[in-house]
Every structure is written in structure tokens, then in C-alpha cells.
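Let's study a protein:

___
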Amino acid sequence: MSQMSIVLVDDHTLFRKGLAELLEREGAVRVADITGNPADVAGLLRTHHPDVLLLDLNIGGIDGITVMQELRAEGFNLPVLILTVSEAEEDLARALRSGANGYLLKSMEPDEVIDAIDRAGRGETVVAPGMTTKLVRLLDHKNNAVPSLLDTLTQREHEILTHLGRGESNKAIARQLDISYDTVKLHVRHVLAKLNLSSRVEAAVFAVENRVMKTGGEKR
């Protein structure tokens, strides 16, 4: 396991310092910096360029998911792991649908947190062991809603989803459909939003699992 660097954001001083010390002690994670102030995060990311951001769900009354979305809007695309005491299914769903790469509980053991950081840094989506049953329920609900979700896509969005299922880049899709790169990006955002997906990787998996490519891009 290669050493990952992180920035840790949590408004509880003892918790963030204690967690940082535990992670550093294990040697598999380098804590680049810690803060309890959301306003500091963008600057810390620019300074340290960490592999993963560990972000509290509730930072002194400020919504961590909103902080994550603002960072995304500023162009920070590193993996974000939401860290929380909340075991509520709705919080898990909101975090993943908003683009978080994982949902960790503060009750997890240090080695579990380290493993989650490593996996997130390698591009995986990670959920605390205690939340897996709730994740399965969310996925079941999502799969049951597939036909109606697909019906919300336009003809062009179906075509975009088909190309995503083939693992094609935005540039390749733009060339094949003879539309601009920015137009493809816009369509991809719409597809993800309508299908309640958080990444183009999820969209590709969705397309394969639901045989979207078999339709040749036509609406069902």
C-alpha cells in the first residue's frame, strides 16, 4: 500500500488532532494539514495537493457536502471522503449523490480509515462497513427506478449514455456526434443528474448493467 497524503477537516479539535496522530503513527497516511475552518480548505488544497480530502459532514453548523460542492465548482477534483457520526440513510444517499467518493463513520478503527483512504485514492467508492446494508437498499431502490429514470433522458442524452458505456472520452464523443466538447460536458452533467449518479464511471456501469448499448442510443 503506497502512502497517501490527506487534508483533514473537522471542527472538533481533539478529534482531528487525535485522528491525525493515529493515522501518522500507522505510517500508511501522511497528514499534510488539518483544519476546523471550511474557509481554509481551498488554500490548503492548493498548497499541499493531497491525494484525498477527509471532510466532516457537519463543520460547526456548516454543511460539509455544500463545502465539497463549492470545492468541486472551484475545480478541485480530488477524492473526498465524508467523515461523520451520522448513520442516517438519507445522509449517505445525499453524500454519494453529491459526488463524495466515500462515507466514513467516526467510530471506524484507524486501520479501516487508512484502507478507505487508500482505496479512495485509487479511484474506488468506499462506504463504512456499518453502512453497507443501507447502501444495498439505496442501490436496490435505484435499480427499481431504472425504467422511469431512463425515460427522463432526451434522445441526445441516450446517445451520450451509450458512448459513456463504451468508456469513451468527452473528446471522442464530441467527434463522433459532431458536437462541441463543451456540449458533451453539459450533456454528461444532465445524464448524471437525471440518473442520480455521481460520476461518469457510475454512468458507464449503469449503461452496461441496463443494456443501454443494445438500444443503439434510442429511447425505450
In short: The first strand starts at residue 4 and ends at 9. The beta strands are 4-9, 29-35, 52-56, 58-59, 62-63, 80-84, 102-105, 126-127.
